[in-house]
Amino acid sequence: MSHIELDRERCEGHGTCEQIAPNIYQLDDEGLVSILVDQPLPDELVGAAEAGARVCPLAALRVVDGS
Ligand code: SF4
């Protein structure tokens, strides 16, 4: 089972992750990323979650596999 690790301290709210995977990542009222989906991630969302995490310029997102 995969899940998203988010380090909000790193996020600067550029929104690149949201552009790539708007069904998973969204900027909240504070202008920082929030995760829209339940965890652990359903298998069909892992690819999109990883794609969004990869484009984060600040490495605030990581998709990890494991229980
Ligand atoms: S791409 Fe990274 S820095 Fe930008 S909003 Fe997403 S998590 Fe935050």
Automatic annotation (TrEMBL):
Keywords: 3Fe-4S, Electron transport, Iron, Iron-sulfur, Metal-binding, Transport. The keyword Metal-binding applies. Residues 2-30 form the 4Fe-4S ferredoxin-type domain. Its cofactor is [3Fe-4S] cluster. This is Ferredoxin. The keyword Iron-sulfur applies. Gene3D superfamilies: 3.30.70.20. It comes from Nocardioides endophyticus.
